Write the structure tokens for this entry.
Amino acid sequence: MRYDKGINNKTLKMNTGELLKKYDKDGNGFNQKELKELIKGSVSIIGKPFITNSVINKVQNIFDKNQDGIISEKELDNYLKENYGINLNTAKSMNVKDLTDKIYKIDQEKKNK
């Protein structure tokens, strides 16, 4: 499955840095409410938003390594570097579609090794 499937077209066209800034209103990382708003505002099935607390918890657990309830820029940066060799500043300069395409391509290359 492609990573950009389910992401609404408006979000795919956005700059990743602007998208993060839009939902991290206080600039100190994503708390659970902000994370839910980010996902709810960006992902939809057949034009309708969908989100469950289970999805939020899974995403939170993936990124929030110190389990303080906040996904910080440092945690995002570390995740991207460790898994994709992309630093957060580079990701922020890309639009969401290009970033998801790059991540998908890297995952496919890993899978085929």
